[in-house]
Input
Amino acid sequence: MKKISSVSIRLILLNFLEFAVWGAYLTSLGRYLGGIGMGSQIKWFFAMQGIVSIFMPALMGILADRKIQAQKVLSLCHGLAGISMIAAGVYCLNAGAAVQFAPLFTLYSLSVAFYIPTIALV
Output
């Protein structure tokens, strides 16, 4: 039986976590937004995934190919996406029932703008 290298294990873990994080919040996002009274705006949150998917992977790919190493762009994008998503979570926890669309959508959009290119970089 062939032994799996540590690099292979790390890549498997990276790919698993890449899609596990995405699936973890996408499956509950619509229910949460509906519960706080933003049912009519759910479409904008899911549409942002598609809108960002059109141009951000290309922009980050150009950056990764010409200016910065792909590993550094990947870690920068993951870090900024994580910070934006944490900020959105903290905002929602602090606002309680008074969550407003504009701040939440802005933070979510920033998170998606940095997360979507990581799929192409992985």
User: Anything to note?
Assistant: Residues 6-35 form the longest helix (30 residues).
